[in-house]
Automatic annotation (TrEMBL):
This is Transcriptional regulator, MarR family. It holds the Pfam family MarR_2. InterPro entries: HTH_MarR-typ, MarR/SlyA-like, WH-like_DNA-bd_sf, WH_DNA-bd_sf. PROSITE patterns: HTH_MARR_2. The lineage of its organism: Bacteria, Bacillati, Armatimonadota, Fimbriimonadia, Fimbriimonadales. Residues 1-129 form the HTH marR-type domain. SUPFAM superfamilies: Winged helix' DNA-binding domain. GO terms for biological process: response to stress. It comes from Fimbriimonas ginsengisoli Gsoil 348.
Amino acid sequence: MTQISKSDYESLLAFRTALRRFLHFTEQGARAVGLTPQQHQVLLAVMGQPGRDWASVGEIAEALQIRHHAAVGLIDRCQQAGVVMREHDPTDRRTVRVSLTDQGKDVLQRLSSANLAELKTLTDLLKGF
């Protein structure tokens, strides 16, 4: 077993504290714009898909580490909030594409701008470790 130094413990604590601080910051931001933190994560899961601006329900479930039926309920609530819309994939009718509405894009842009600034601050703090 590798010996862990006091400095290692301090680095782990600093990282864990920064991570919790970031999560708390993003959760507060989502609530401030009328979304739950999970709804904000849905928006990010949609826009974060490589090379496209939509996601399948399965991809959202995977990104959020939740079951498919839980993702469906969460997407339903996002749709009721006016931030996402659903449509069938034109090439595979079994697949439902979830994409952001203009309102969803605006909300995600504002949240992500603030979150990236906070992440930079925390990254700068952690550079000493």
